[in-house]
Amino acid sequence: MATAAVARPEVRSSPTAYEALKKHFEEHPEERFEHPHKWDVSRSDIYAENTWHPIFREMRAAGPLHYIPESPFGPYWAVVSHKAIQHIEALPDVFSSSWEHGGITILNRLTEEELAEAGEDSRELPMFIAMDRPQHTGQRRTVAPKFTPSGMAEMEGEIRQRTGELLDSLPRGEVFDWVDKVSIELTTGMLAILFGFPWEDRRLLTFWSDWSGDTELASVRALDKVRWEILKEMGAYFQTLWVERTHDKEPGDDLISMMIHSEAMNQMRPEEFMGNLVLLIVGGNDTTRNSMSGIIYQLDKNPDQRKLFEQQPELIPNAVQEILRMQTPLAHMRRTCTEDTEVFGQTIKKGDKVVLWYLSANRDEEVFDNPDKLDITRENARRHIAFGYGIHRCVGARLAELQLRVLLEELHKRRMRVHLAGDIERVRANFVHGFRKLEVEITEF
Hints:
CATH class: Mainly Alpha
GO molecular function: heme binding; iron ion binding; monooxygenase activity; oxidoreductase activity, acting on paired donors, with incorporation or reduction of molecular oxygen
Keywords: Heme, Iron, Metal-binding, Monooxygenase, Oxidoreductase
Radius of gyration: 21 Å
CATH architecture: Orthogonal Bundle
Distance between the termini: 45 Å
Helix content: 40-55%
Number of strands: 10
């Protein structure tokens, strides 16, 4: 425990990122993005409307990667095959993740003129996923012990208890929003425990995650300004936790304490601290939250697979992998080419933006038979790359898998069958891929 509590700064908790973006485009319809190229998969409407499948299928059939000369995010290479993405991820020195070259999303860095217009010196969020070796190695190594198999074994009991208590509290005989009551609640609770974050403020983690993870927000100048104000509030709040932990007589095992006691992370600049917070919050929140919703959606849409799940609970670990493949909670990651190079017959120039569409790779017909069908017995479900591949593979992958497995096991133990029973609203974004609302009703099997 900290020796003394530090006063928390005032932070806002509204409007949500979604509300702000919707309102902006209602008031400024002329600012909506245009996507003249038929294969420009940076358009967010295809994810909100769940119409992305045939576009990527057509692209895969035509080749593993394609140059998109024009988009709201500038020209980029769209890498759509499983093999090509693994190949590029295995060359981290040629295909850089560094924030200094543009980072890990399709977004452009602001030019010096744009920064001057915004009255900012810089708008960068260095984080270890957006660093190259050796900086990446030292910072990742700091937090990795939290996510080892032994770390997971220590956390499983608490995760199971919290999951069971939440499921027992859900209403019966009435429709409710699974995203709000289950997916958000379980993931923000987990994040609060990992950070040692004040429990009563845990919903702030979801609020910050949405504002930092929505790439479209950052492309609208007025909203990007608000976004940065909110991220600075997040940084100030976490700074009070940092100060408290530095007074601890014994180092804690939460992520902030681990950073404080790490040579690789205890001298971070404010931007770097904020960047790593965003990484851990978005990584820990969006991937698991959207997969927890994806579980319910996929089982309801595939009654034959739901029956298998209900009859053969031993399939649950493999079902987790298959649902991660089907959901793919982060649609893309971006790299920047550091030297002219040839990949699969295409010449990629130094400085080119290379976007790895995990969403497409996980539906690659050359790897997965009948890829658009949920199959919880699929023998190679583990070949999905929903967590990335290579040195930047998600550090918290084991924790996400554990949370999803426990959720399925606890649902099965209670013989709970969750039906879609109302509105389904998907996230309108090209980075985070998931559900904003999923109205359901519970029965028993």
